[in-house]
Automatic annotation (TrEMBL):
Domain HRDC: 484-564
Protein's name in the database: Exosome complex component 10
One of the record's GO molecular function terms: nucleotide binding
Organism: Pygocentrus nattereri
Keywords (A to Z) from UniProt: Cytoplasm, DNA damage, DNA repair, Exonuclease, Exosome, Hydrolase, Isopeptide bond, Magnesium, Metal-binding, Nuclease, Nucleus, Phosphoprotein, RNA-binding, rRNA processing, Ubl conjugation
A cellular component term, taken from the record's GO annotations: nuclear exosome (RNase complex)
Gene3D superfamilies with a match to the protein in the record: HRDC domain, Ribonuclease H-like superfamily/Ribonuclease H
Gene name for this UniProt entry: EXOSC10
Subunit relationships: Component of the RNA exosome complex. The catalytically inactive RNA exosome core complex (Exo-9) associates with the catalytic subunit EXOSC10/RRP6 (via its N-terminus). Exo-9 may associate with DIS3 to form the nucleolar exosome complex, or DIS3L to form the cytoplasmic exosome complex. The RNA exosome complex interacts with cofactors C1D/RRP47, MPHOSPH6/MPP6 and MTREX/MTR4. Interacts with MTREX; the interaction with MTREX mediates the association of MTREX with nuclear RNA exosomes.
Amino acid sequence: SGPESKNEPDTESDTAEFCPGFKDVDAFVKRGLGGVVAATKASGLLPQAGDEFDFYRSFPGFQDFCAVQGERLLHCMSQLMQHHGCRSFMKDRSKLTGLEERFDLVIESNDVILEKVGIMLDEASGVTRSQPVMPAGYQPPRIVVSSWNRKGNDHSGETFHLLHAKNIQRPQLKFKEKVDNSNTPFVAKIFVKPNAIKPLPSCELTERPEDLDVPPALADFIHQLRTQEHMDDMFSHPYQYELEHLVMPEILRSRPDPQLYKPLAETSCTFIETLEDLVALNEKLAKTTEFAVDLEHHSYRSFLGITCLMQISTREEDFIIDTLELRSEMYILNESFTDPTIVKVFHGADSDIEWLQKDFGVYVVNMFDTHHAARSLNLGRNSLDHLLKLYCSVDSNKRYQLADWRIRPLPEEMLKYAQADTHYLLYVYDRVRADLFDAANGQSNLIQVVWSKSKDLCLKKYVKPIFTEESYMELHRKQKKSFNSQQLVAFRLLFSWRDKLAREEDESTGYVLPNHMMMKIAEELPKEPQGIIACCNPTPPLVRQQINELHQLIKQAREIPLLKVSEVLSGFILCSSESTLFGPHDTSHVSESDLMELSLQVILLFLLKEDEGVGNSGHLTVAQQKACSILESFENPFRMYLPSKDIHISKNAKYDPSTKIYEISNRWKLQSIEKQQKEAQAKQEAKKQAKKAKGIYRLEVCTPAGPVGPIKVSCVVGLIFSVACGSWKPAHCRQEWDEARLKRINLRIKE
Ligand code: AMP
Ligand code: MN
Ligand code: ZN
C-alpha cells in the first residue's frame, strides 16, 4: 500500500488493494472459489476412465487436445507445488512412471498446504486445532476458558464453547481391555468369525518338526514355512477371502422404488447401553435386508482415537449405541455386519471401516457407500449434507461433527444430530441407486462400480501408527523450514519424546505438543525452560509438567556441532556450493566433483562406521574427515537394514510388497523382540566370524572425478550397497538421491 494518493474514489481504507486486481480478501476468495467450482464441474464432465474415455481416445484430435491440456495442467500444478516447497513431478519426470506416484505427490502437497493453512488459522484464532467443540446449551462442570479460546469472538452466530477435556472422565479408564499403544503392528481383534467361508487361522503353532524323522535342514525349512504362514494369517484381513469371493446381491441389479423415510419426529430412537439391548438389536438386524450405519469418533485425548457412538437405522427405527459402554461387546454385531445377504449402507466409510476394526474387531461384508455413489453421479459435491439437501430437502448442520463425543449423558441436541446422520441414509441409498440406474440407461453397471469400490473399502486394514527413526523426517519434510544440525537434532528429540509420551499417557500427539509448537521450539532452541514455555501458547499441560526433560533435550541438541545444512535428506546431506558448510575455519572452495566425492564418502562412512570397519581418522582424506564430522550429527539411513531390537517400517514402502523395505520390515516385525535380540546377537557373532575368515568385498567406486577405492567392506555392507543402488526404487530415496545421481556415481560391486 502506497502512502501517495492516486485519485482513488474510495476514502480512508481504500488505497490498500489486497492484491493486484482485488480490493479485499472477499473479492479474492470469491474469484478463487468461482474458479474452483468451474474446474470441479468441468472435470466432472470429463469422460470416465474405462468406458467413455477409451472411445473418445480413439480420435487423434481428442488425444492431441488432452496431451496439450494435460501438459499445461501438470506444469501449473508443478509450479504450485514448487512454490510451496514440495516435491513436484516436473523436475523428475523420467523416474516417475506411474500415475499412482504422481497422485501420491499431489496428496503430499495437499497435506503440506493444508497443514500450513491449519497452522495459520490456529495462530489467527489463538486456538489449538482438534480441540473439540461443545453444544451451546451444554453445561460442563468447569470450563477452563482462559487461554484455550482467547480471542474467540463470541458474537459469531453459533457459539461453540471450547472445552478443556479434563472435565470429562477418560473413558479409557473403564475399558475392560486396555488400549495397546505399543509400537507394534496391529493384530486383528477377532476371535469368533460369523459367516465364515474360510475359518479363522488356529492360534497354536504346530510343533517344530525337528522331533520328526527328517533331516535338520528340512525341518528348519518346514518350520519357517509354517511360521510364515501363521504370521501371514495373523496380519491378514480376517474376511479377505469372503470379500474377494463376494458377488453383488441380486437386489442391486434392478431399479429400486425409493421408500420414503419416516418423519424424524415420529421415529423411535433407542439408546443402547446394555448387552441385553445390543443382543436384541443384533437379532433385529439379522432379519433385515439393509440397514444404515455411522460412527462418531474422538481423537484428541487418546493416542489411537476412540469410537464413542454407533448410529444404526433400519427402515423403521433408529438406534444409537453407546460404544464406550459396550466396547468389548460390539463384536457380536459381526453376525449382521458380515452377513453377505444384508447390505450395510454407509456414507464415506473410509474411517469407519478402520475404526470398527481398531476398537471392536468388527468387519463389514456387503457394503454400499453413498459417498461413492455421489461421486459416480458427478453431483459436484459429495457430502452427506448435500445429499440430504438434494434428496430430502433437509438442512443438516454439521456443527457437531467435531464435538467431544465422549461426554455422558449425551445432550439431547447431540443425540438428535447423531440420529439424523443415519435416519435418512436408506432413502438416500434408494435414490442414488435409482439415479445410477438412470444414468446408466437402465443398466446396473454404475451400481456395480460403486458396490465394488465399497467392497474395496471393506478390504482396508487398520494400520497402527508406527514410530521409526525416520518418522521425524517425514514430518520435517512437510514443513518448509530448513534446519541446521542443532535444530534438526532438537526436532528429532522432541518428536521422539512426544511419541513416547503420547503412547504412555494415551493422548494424541497433537495434545502433547502440536506440530507448530514443536517446530517453533526446534527453530528457536531456547536456552532457558521459560523460553520453551514461551514457544507454546497456550502451553500444553504435558509440556509444563515435563519442562525439565524438554530443557535437557534442547541442551543436548545445542551441544551438537553447528553445521549449516542447506538440505537434509533422511540423514544424507548434500550441500550446495554457496553455503559455508564447515564453519568459519574452512575457507576452501568446494567444487562440484569434490561435493560428489564428499557425499559419496558420507554414505560410505555411514556404512563403514556401522560395520565398525574404520574409525582411524589418521588414514582419512580431508574429504573423509569432513564427512566424519558431518556423520556425528546424523543417523545412519541404512540402520533399518541392520539388526536392531526396534521395529522399522518405512511408511512409504511398507504397503508395497515389491519393495525391499516391505520384505525386510515384514520379516522383522513378525518376530518377537526377544527373538530379534537373540538373533541380533547371533548375527553379530557370525559377522565377526565371517570377517575373520573372508567374505570381504572390494567395492570399486567411480565418481566423475575418477575412481575412488577399491575399498574393503564386509559382506553386510556390500549387500546393503546393492540394495541402495539396485533394487531401491527412486521413490523411496529422498528427492535428490535420484537415479541420475546413482548412475553418475556408477557403483560397481566386485567380489
Ligand atoms: P461423520 O461421519 O461426519 O459423522 O463423522 C464421524 C467422525 O469423523 C466425527 O465424530 C469426527 O470424529 C470425525 N470427523 C468428521 N469430520 C471431520 C473433520 N472435518 N475433521 C476431523 N475429524 C472429522
Ligand atoms: Mn460417518
Ligand atoms: Zn456421523
